[in-house]
From TrEMBL:
It is a multi-pass membrane protein. SUPFAM superfamilies: MetI-like. This is Sugar ABC transporter permease. It comes from Pleomorphomonas diazotrophica. CDD domains: TM_PBP2. Residues 51-264 form the ABC transmembrane type-1 domain. One of its GO terms (biological process) is transmembrane transport. InterPro entries: ABC_transporter_permease (IPR051393), MetI-like (IPR000515), MetI-like_sf (IPR035906). The lineage of its organism: Bacteria, Pseudomonadati, Pseudomonadota, Alphaproteobacteria, Hyphomicrobiales. Keywords: Cell membrane, Membrane, Transmembrane, Transmembrane helix, Transport. One of its GO terms (cellular component) is plasma membrane. PROSITE patterns: ABC_TM1. The chain crosses the membrane at residues 54-76, 88-108, 137-162, 183-208, 243-266. It is found in: Cell membrane.
Length: 277
């Protein structure tokens, strides 16, 4: 099993990195051109645009998705009626693929089919909701779709953590007259640190590999207004027959993920091991 993992993951990863230093086009080549592909990559406006778009999506997606997921978990944790129904409704979007989520919101926000068309049919001809075709708003349309898809996951993880909080803590804080918001902020959230880290890691992974929802909603358009790195990589790998440039872009994303994950891995494993010893 270990051999399969090493070959399937580490081996293919190393091979991709190796190809990024070659002049591979339609087929892989075993030559070496140094950092040529990386210089070409960062001289490509489309790649720089995709990176900028990903930063904007990542910021709002993580912020809104985590905040909304926490609020939903806190809401359900109040022993509301129909709890099972609320859990199902909030978590259901995450059970869908990103393609389905993208198609749903592409229809909802399409000015010729969705909400805008419906409002015009009702007589509100001045109503405008053309986000998927508006270059200035299309990124926010993608953010809405991804938040709708991912907030249920955060809700489920945080809710599982909230159900593990000792009821004696709540009783003690009520006796002391501590405001509920302060209890969540100062006591409960620090106790949920493993769930918070897990949810942020899962959300971050979905951001890096974001491809399906963008293709389904906008196909990277209008123009390159919603272009993301994963789409840039796939287009160069399969449509533009530029394996060297595609693997250089994927290597940049790999390094980015490793840099983001390194502090988490260190704090979760190596730091704990150091204390234990």
């Amino acid at each position: 099993m270990a051999v399969v993992v090493i070959f399937a993951y580490l081996g293919t990863m190393a091979w991709s990195v190796r190809l990024s230093f070659s002049s591979s086009k339609l087929l892989p080549k075993n030559d070496f051109v140094g950092l040529t592909q990386y210089f070409t990559l960062f001289d490509t406006p489309r790649w720089l645009t995709s990176l900028g778009n990903l930063v904007i999506i990542a910021f709002f997606f993580l912020l809104i998705c985590f905040a909304l997921g926490c609020l939903l978990a806190i809401f359900i944790d109040q022993n509301v009626r129909g709890e099972s129904l609320f859990r199902t409704v909030f978590l259901y979007p995450y059970a869908m693929s990103f393609v389905v989520a993208g198609l749903v919101w592409q229809w909802v926000l399409n000015p010729d089919l969705g909400i805008q068309h419906t409002m015009h049919g009702l007589g509100f001809t001045g109503f405008v909701l053309d986000w998927v075709v508006n270059p200035k708003m299309v990124l926010y349309a993608v953010i809405v779709a991804t938040v709708w898809h991912g907030s249920g996951l955060v809700m489920a993880l945080i809710l599982a953590g909230l159900r593990g909080v000792d009821t004696e803590i709540w009783r003690a804080t009520r006796i002391d007259g501590i405001p509920t918001w302060r209890v969540y902020l100062s006591i409960v959230l620090p106790m949920l640190r493993p769930m918070i880290i897990t949810s942020l890691v899962l959300l971050s992974i979905s951001i890096v590999k974001m491809y399906d929802v963008v293709v389904a909603m906008t196909n990277g358009g209008p123009g390159t207004a919603s272009e993301v790195p994963a789409k840039f990589i796939m287009d160069n790998l399969f449509e533009r027959a530029n394996i060297g440039l595609a693997t250089a872009a994927s290597t940049v994303m790999l390094v980015t993920v490793l840099l983001v994950m390194a502090p988490v891995i260190y704090s979760q494993y190596f730091r704990k091991s150091g204390r234990a010893s």
